[in-house]
Amino acid sequence: EQLEEFWRKGMERMGDTETIVSIGMRGDGDEPMTEGTAIELLENIVKRQREIIAETTGKPASQTPQMWALYKEVQDYYDKGMRVPDDVTLLLCDDNWGNIRKLPDPQAAERSGGYGIYYHYDYVGGPRNYKWLNTNQIERTWEQMNLAYEHNVKKVWIVNVGDIKPMEFPTQFFLDLAWNPEAFTAPDLPDYYVSWATEIFGKEQAKGIAEIMQLYTKYNARRKPELLNADTYSLVHYNEAERVNNEYQELLKKAESVKKLVPSELQDAYYQLVYFPVAASANLNELYFVTAKNRLYAKQGRALTNSYAEKAEELFQKDAALTQYYHTELADGKWNHMMSQTHIGYTYWQQPEVNAMPEIKKISLTEKAKMGVSISGSAEVYPISTEKAILPNYDSFNRPQYEIEIFNKGKKPFDFQLSSNYDWIKVSEKKGKIEKQEKIMVSIDWSKASEGESTGEIIIKGAGDKVEVSVPVNKIGEPIKPGFLETNGYVSIHAENYSDKRETDSTIWITIPNLGKTKSSVSTSPAVLNLGEDIEKSPRLSYNINFLSEGEVKVHLYFSPTLNYTAGNGFKYAVGFDNEKPLIVNFHEDTSSRAWNQSVANNIKILTTSHHIKKGNHTLNYYALHNGLVLQKIVIDTGGLRETYLGPPQSFEIN
C-alpha cells in the first residue's frame, strides 16, 4: 500500500509535465530487489504501475511515455525472458564505465517504444569510484553511442554526469551527438574540440585549447586518477614513468602559455574548464612519479632519497593549494566546494574521507662517500649486484641513447672516471665529482662501429669501487625490407599504422583519431553487420615486420574493453603470420568479474596468441570476424618484452 501510494502521488505531481515515466523497481540503496531473479514479482509490479498510470492520467497507459531501465541486475530479468508492453522504451545501459552491455538484434521486430541508452561519465562503485575530474574521451563516447545508433537505439539517450562542473565538455559533446548523430564521423572528431573552444573562447586561441583538451582527456583516460598509485607506470622499463610525467609537464606548459593569451573576461572560464584539470592532473601524476622515485632510491640507498620525500610532500600540499584557489579565489569563490572530491589515498572502491599522503621513505647516510651505479632498463645497483651490468641493445636504425647514473650513498662527495677501449662508444661525461648523483648519456658513433653484432665495455671508477658496463651493439648491414624492426626482444606497433588492408563490399576500416592510451585506434564500419567467420573473405589489416631473431613469439593485441552486447557467445577475431592458418580468438571467452574489473580499471583488454617465426621479414595479419572490436596497439614479444602499463613505445619503421 505504501509503494502504491508513493507511485500514485508521483504521477499526480507529474501533472501535464512532459516526461518519461520510469517503471519497474529495484531494491533500497542501489541494490537488487530480491535474491535471484523474481520475474513474476516484477511483472506484477509493472502491471500495477501501469494501472496507476492509467487511473491518474485518465487515458490508456500506452499513451504515457514510459521506460524500463535494464540497469545492473535488472538486465538479468530481460535476459531470462521478462518482457514489458511494446509501447515501453527499453533503456539499455552501459557497465558504469562507458562500455555498452546490450544492444538489440538488428533483425528483431521493431518496438513502438523503441530503445534508449543510459551512459556514464561518473560512477560510485567498483572497482573504484571516479568522480574528481573528467576522464572520458569523446572518441570513446562517439564509438559506443555510434554502435547504439547503428543498432536503432534512438528513442532516448541519458548520461550520468555526477557533478556537472568538471563534466561540461563531454556533456556538451553527448548532447550535440544526441541531437544529430549523423553529423559526426570518426575523422571529424578532432574538429569538435576546435569548434567547442571557438564557441567559448573565440577563434584566436581555439586550436591551442583544442589540443590541450584532446591530450588532457587522453592522458587521464589511461587510468582514472582515483586508481593511480606510485606503481602504475614503470620507473625502470622504457623510461615509462618519466615519459608520462614529461607529457603532463609539457601539456601544463602549453596550458600556461595559452592562459597568458586568453582575454581577462574569459580567464575564470579558462581556469576552471581548461587550466585546472591539466594543472591538477599533472601535479597528481608528478606526486606519484616522485613518490615512486623516492621508494626506489630508498631501496638503492641513494643520497637523494630524502630530497624526493620532501618533494613528494610539497606536491601533496600543492594539490590542496590548487583546490583552495579554485574554491576561494577563482571568480571570488563562485565555485566553492566544486573540487572537494577526495582522490588520493584510496584503499578499495569507496573514497577515503580525506586525501591521504602516499607513503614515502627517509634514510640515513654513512659519513664517507660510497659509489652506486644504475643503468637503463634495470633496478639493480652496482657494484653490489651479482647480475652483470648490460645496457639495452643499440641498433643502427633506432640509434638510441641510454643512461648510466652514478650516485652517492654517503655524505661526502667523490670523484669518478669513465673509460673505454672502444672508440665507437660515446659518453656525455668522462670524469667529474659526485655530490648526489650524475646522469651519463651513452651513445654510439656509428661511423666507427663494426658491421654486425658486437659488445663494448665502459669502466666506471669512484670512491674506491669499479663497475664494468657492457654495451651491446648491432650495426645492421644486411638488406632490410620495409616494416617495423624488432629490437631488444620486442616489436611494438600502433594499430593505425598498418602496411595494407583488405575491405569488403559492405565493410570498411576506420581510424578513430586519438582514441586509446597512446595514439589512435582502428575498427570496422558499419558496426551493425554480422561479418561471419570466413577468414578468406573477412576484413583484414596487415603489418610488415622485420625479425632479427627466431623462435616462439607472443602476439599481444591491445583492445578497448568492449563488452559482448549481443546474445551470441562473444566477438571473434583471427591473427596469423604470412600464409599460416590464422588462430581464431574469442574476445569474450573470459567473462569473469575479475577479468571485467581488470579491463575497466586498466581501460584496456590484452589478448595473446603464440606463433613460431623465422628470422627475416614477415607479415602479421589481423582479421575482423565480428564488428565492434576496437584495436589500439600490437606488441610482439620475441623474448625481451618488459612489463609496463602502456606497453613499449612504437618500434622503428623502415619505409
From TrEMBL:
The answer on whether this UniProt entry bears the keyword Acetylation reads no
Write out the entry's keywords from A to Z. Hydrolase
Against InterPro entries, the record matches this protein to:
GH115 (IPR031924), GH115_C (IPR041437), GH115_sf (IPR042301)
Q: What would be an example GO MF term here?
A: hydrolase activity
Domain Gylcosyl hydrolase 115 C-terminal: start-end pairs: 483-650
Spell out the protein name for this chain: Glycosyl hydrolase
Species name for this entry?
Marivirga lumbricoides
